[in-house]
Design brief:
The structure is a single chain. A hairpin with a 4-residue loop joins strand 2 and strand 3. This protein has 7 helices and 4 strands. The chain has 154 residues and is α+β, with helices and mostly antiparallel strands. The protein is elongated.
Length: 154
Amino acid sequence: MKKFQDYRKQVDNCCYQLFQIIQDCTNRGFLPHTLIEEVEEISQKVKSQQFRLAVLGEFSQGKSTLLNALLGEEIQPAREIPCSGMVTVLKYGTQKRVVCRYKDGHEEEIPFEQYQLKATISEDAALGCLSDELAHNEIDEIVFEHPDLGRVIN
């Protein structure tokens, strides 16, 4: 995390210097005003200290176990055979909530107690023809918001 913060400071400093150069060139009529807005947007993203972490790999290799260990809570379902087969987004939220986004475009909030049930594929599918169940699943992704996810990043 220390290394990430050091890199963030370096990028922020570079953005500031670039912003100064672009602003000077824009004031002289050499560059369009949109370039300043783009550099400022990048600078704001760097200052937010938010980043994305993707955890992916083959079935049953410990991805969910790793996430649960990082979060200090058993959020992701885990078992010895393949367990989850869809994109699950874990992100900070002011309250614990789960939103299912469906392939047809609609979404619904579901109780936390139903999250693991929705995110888990059946044992029959895991042991047999996994691709058939995943192909017929109507869920595009599940978004899990949790207030404790902020502490993982900070």
